[in-house]
Amino acid sequence: MSFLSQEDIDAVLTNAEAAVSQLVAATNASADAAGAARPIAAGRAADSALRSPRLQRILSLDVPIIVRLAMRRMKVSDILKWSRGTIVEFEKAVEDRLELMVNDKVIGRGEAVKVAENFGLRIATIVDPQTRIRSLGD
Predict the structure, then answer these.
(1) Owning domain of residue 85
(2) I want to staple 99 with a disulfide (CB 3.0 to 4.6 A). Which of 14, 68, 78, 119 is the partner?
(3) Using an 8 Å Cβ cutoff, are 24 and 37 in contact?
(4) How far apart are CA 119 and CA 33, in angstroms?
(5) Residue 86: is its pLDDT beyond 80?
(6) Are 105 and 69 within one domain?
(7) For helices 129-137 and 6-32, what crossing angle results, to 10°?
(8) Does residue 112 sit in the same domain as residue 68?
């Protein structure tokens, strides 16, 4: 098994960010140019970057995502007083959106939903793909 160095990962993430930018630009230009030819060169460059083996290795990685309900600070002495049934109160309204995080960075917000017998998150807002890519490398 071969591993990527941090420099390799940084380079791949930079290339991925550039590829996503090119795809977004090509898509926007295509949508804006009613009847005009699609920017083929930009699309091909982005497609090529997205097919690189190094990028595919990064894209196939499983990364943990976190849905954060709330956060607060407490003294250790208060935490040691907890027992079964203790309720810890947070200064967040029940109707407030939950934070969707990757690599300890908030990338979106959403509402809790029930999916069969599981918990899910309906994404209401999310950052652009370039920002999501950057959140993986920081």
Answers:
(1) 64-138
(2) 68
(3) no
(4) 42
(5) yes
(6) yes
(7) 180
(8) yes
Determine the Cα–Cα distance for residues 104 and 66; give it in Å rounded to an integer: 8
The two tokens of residue 46 are 């982005």
Q: How many CB atoms lie within 10 A of CB 89?
A: 7
For residue 24, give the nearest of 137, 128, 108, 134 by alpha carbon.
128
Residue 118 sits in a domain of what CATH number?
Answer: 2.30.330.10
- Given a contact cutoff of 8 angstroms between Cβ atoms, the answer to whether 63 and 136 are in contact is yes
Instruction: Read off the pLDDT of residues 28-40 as tens digits, 9 standing for 90 and up.
Output: 554 455 444 445 5
Q: How far apart are the first and last CA of the chain?
A: 25
Alpha-carbon gap, residue 85 to 70, rounded angstroms: 19
Query: Which secondary-structure segment (H or E) carries 125?
Result: strand 118-126
pTM: 0.61
pLDDT for position 76: 97
Element (H, E) at 94: none
Q: Does 95 share its domain with 137?
A: yes
Greatest Cα pair distance, the chain, in angstroms, is 69
Q: Which residues contact 129 (CB under 8 A, 6 or more apart)?
A: 20, 24
Q: Which of 61, 77, 112 is the last residue of a domain?
A: 61
